[in-house]
Amino acid sequence: MTKPYEAEGSALTPQEMRSIESLYRAFTDRNPDLLDEACTPDWQDIPLLPGQGPGPQGLKDIFPMFLQAFPDMKIVIHEIVGSAGRAGVRASIVGTHLGEIFGVPATGRAVDVALHEFHHLRNGRITHTWHLENWFGMLNKIDAWPPSADGAKQGGRSR
Predict the structure, then answer these.
(1) Each residue's pLDDT tens digit, 48-77
(2) Three-state SS sequence of 94-144
């Protein structure tokens, strides 16, 4: 299988690479149970999304929100760099906004959200993830940002 990214020179173990790939494949394959394979039970996802609880189960609980908003969602990995126990990932969340997200009704627009994450791993599984997504860029793409002064624009809030 050809991968759309390279991990050349990576000192990550094969098990660490599988865990990282499984984390993202959980979304693309619509299989939240892959999170249990990829992450330790006490995995820390930093920062938590609104409404997200701790551990893999916390992300699994809000999984339907993402799939309802972006039923064709995929996470495309562009690059993985790392050394044993540490990895950085540059990826994109791509899909079509076909359901409500963050209070914004469906627009039918394609989105491409930049995703940057850093992982700590132990015994081949992810223990911590620090992430940064370009949600403001996504909100701008679906005309929800900046919010209108009267709060009427696509679920926007008044200032």
Answers:
(1) 988 899 999 999 999 999 999 999 999 999
(2) EEECCCCECCECCCCCEEEEEEEEEEEEECCEEEEEEEEECHHHHHHHCCC
Say if CB 100 and CB 70 are below 8 A apart. Answer: no
Q: CA-to-CA distance for 78 and 66, rounded, in angstroms?
A: 21
Q: Is the pLDDT of residue 155 over 50?
A: no
Count of all residues that appear for the chain in the document:
159
Element (H, E) at 33: none
Q: Enter the pTM of the model.
A: 0.83
Collapsing DSSP states into helix, strand and coil, what is residue 58? helix
- Cα–chain center distance at 129: 11
Domains and CATH numbers, the chain: 14-141 (3.10.450.50)
Q: What is the CA radius of gyration of the chain?
A: 16
